[in-house]
Amino acid sequence: MVTRENFENNLQELQAKLTMMGELAVASINKSFDAFKNHDIELALKVIEEDSVVDNLETEINQFIVWLMAKEQPVARDLRRIIGVLKISSEIERIADFGVNIAKATIKIGTSNSQVDDTNLDQMKEISITMMHKALQSFFEGNMVLVKEVADLDDKVDKLYGETYKMLTSHLKENPEETEQLVQLLLINRFLERTADHITNIAESAAYLIKGQIYDLNS
Length: 219
Description:
The protein is mainly α. The protein has six helices and no strands. It starts with a helix and ends in an 8-residue tail after the last helix.
């Protein structure tokens, strides 16, 4: 019983580290988008500088998992939980990278006027943050209802991505002098769409933990 209790405590510590990593990734997306909307170059640079914290935490999680698997040699559901954390930490690191990418695009746009108010980018970002919370909650609580909600929200982001892409490319044809700025907006549109995809992958890990089978929620 003591051995099992120690193992559960280790899993809780692992979950706490993953939760912290998720919060940092959400902060990266939020800060980078605030920098983008407000032409705040200083904040964009701060997002880039803070990315190392997420990278270091992912390394810490990976090392913790290697130690835990060697020590406990988990099987069945416990093994799925640990492998799930390993995969999710990788997805979260990529999501934080998209925050950095948005910050870099913001720096390239600079203080020039943008078409952000005429796009779906703000809505895509908000939906992605909601997806992130639901995806992690679905994994921690073993909740398939939340998994389905994440998949449905991903479909909404895909739709908004398509609409924004069409709007920006149409504007680009009519205003070629704004090419540099519009290309960065197209990239941000893509970064947000990919962010939602990686969050959906987190929900897939939750589904695997719950059902013991692989789901492709991005199809």
